[in-house]
Write a structure and sequence with these properties.
With 169 residues, the protein is mainly beta. The protein contains one helix and eight strands; from the N terminus they run H-E-E-E-E-E-E-E-E.
Length: 169
């Protein structure tokens, strides 16, 4: 029985040693290697999350409609640019828009009807337009305001409105 016990213990020890020698030790793998041969390897995932972002460049100086020739009409424009790293939505609107293409400049209860046009396919005030991702230079737009009625007989005052530009993702 002594020989049998020694044989059994030797077998158990041998199997245990072989199992330990060939076990995968996870990321800290120790192996015997020959020179100039790949000994072991591991992978580390790398990720970068880029969130949607945009830049709106606007000349925010007031649009001043003037009539130097006393014709009763006036026109003035402002440019703006949208840069984005993703397709975006854009909406332009005014505080007192009267229709898709007109707004009222107001002074108290008096108004001057004004036509508003925006380049880049933004044909209606208050409507959201889907745009594809712009080039690195961005998308250029021009907002043009033209009085739609003779304002020479309106009461003296400063008639105002505000043009709004909204960018959504």
């Amino acid at each position: 029985m002594n020989i049998m016990m020694k044989t059994l213990l030797s077998t158990v020890a041998f199997v245990g040693f072989v199992s330990i020698a060939h076990a995968d030790n996870g990321p800290n793998r120790h192996h015997r290697c020959n020179f100039n041969e790949l000994c072991t390897s591991a992978d580390i995932p790398v990720e970068l999350a880029v969130d949607p972002g945009c830049e709106l460049t606007v000349d925010t100086s007031a649009i001043t409609l003037t009539d130097p020739n006393n014709t009763g009409t006036a026109t003035q424009s402002r440019n703006f640019n949208v840069k984005a790293n993703y397709a975006y939505k854009i909406k332009v609107d005014t505080d007192h828009h009267a229709s898709d293409t007109t707004t009222n400049l107001t002074f108290g209860s008096d108004t001057v009807l004004t036509t508003v046009s925006t380049s880049g396919g933004l044909s209606a005030l208050g409507q959201i337009y889907n745009k594809s991702m712009p080039s690195a230079a961005g998308d250029d737009y021009t907002a043009t305001f033209t009085t739609a009625e003779d304002f020479s007989t309106k009461p003296v005052g400063t008639y105002t409105d505000t043009y709004h530009i909204y960018i959504y993702f």
